[in-house]
Amino acid sequence: MDKNFIVTKSNYFIMNCSYDLSLEEQKLILTLASMVQPEDEDFKPYKFRIADFMVLLGVEDKSKYTEIPKMTKELMKKVFEIEEDDTILQTAWLSSATYRKGSGMVELEFSPRLKPYMLKLGGLFTRYKLANILSMKSKYSPRMYEILKCNEFKHSIEMEVDELRKLLKADNIYPLYNDFKRKVILQTQKELKKISDINFEFEEIKTGRKVTRLKFIIHTIKAKESSFAKAEIVADKEEKKTPLDDLQERITNTIVTLENKVTP
Predict the structure, then answer these.
(1) Is CATH 1.10.10.10 the classification given to domain 1-134?
(2) pLDDT at 263 over 80
(3) 13, 143, 153, 222: which sits with the fewest CB atoms below 10 Å from its CB?
């Protein structure tokens, strides 16, 4: 388990399912997703130390460790929907959770119904580092990040306000647009710019006097090389000499030697 592990999901899955998970539940699911190898035929039982997961989240209070069994129990109860053509699939995230007493280990397994959206992906899919979501504070930020990330290659996307509210499961919480804008759009915009590899601007599109659509302009944030990384690159280049470099160096050394010999 590592913050640099990669989360892989089909774009269809990201754009056609809606679920209501707490921020901690989302981080647990995405951490588990980062352990999946997309080329596998089937999901495996994914085992990790609870302490390692809490370290990833930056949680130092060990009393919080007991929250994980409660969280996995809730995740197996929470059913969400995936719409596909004329069908609606209702499924839970996890099919099982196994705890070995005194070991501090947990073994989790995804529902097999999620295989088409996370394994052997043939269509468009999105990959990102787990680190992009681990520091997020708003429950809407991981979901908003995924929606925009899977459209990053298009640089922009237009969405109905009601459609976005539904995807984020915020339709009943923020039915008024101004509240939705302040509590969700502006908050996630601030977070993504600060801690993720993308940020966005948005334009409001009105029907009459009402904002009915949003156009998101998505920007990629290029990672800055650290001085340590640059030093490694330079050192690597210096070590990898070509045969021509060696020949030139020998010729130079020979000339210097001859010059030294003829010098009185």
Answers:
(1) yes
(2) no
(3) 222
Q: Other C-beta atoms within 10 Å of 39: how many? A: 9
pTM of the model: 0.80
Q: Residue holding tokens 């056609």? A: 16
| Between 264 and 210, the higher pLDDT residue | 210
Among 115, 208, 147, smallest CA distance to 11 is for 147
pLDDT reported for residue 118: 94
- Alpha carbon 128 to its chain centroid, in Å, reads 4
Q: For residue 102, which of 137, 140, 50, 63 has the smallest C-alpha distance? A: 50
Per the structure block, which two tokens stand in for 33?
A: 């997703």
Sorted by sequence, the CB contacts under 8 Å of residue 93 that are 6+ apart come out as 29, 75, 76, 78, 80, 110, 111, 114
Q: Is the pLDDT of residue 231 over 90?
A: no
Angle between helices 23-33 and 141-149 (to 10 degrees): 40
Q: How many CA atoms lie within 13 A of 15 on its CB side?
A: 14
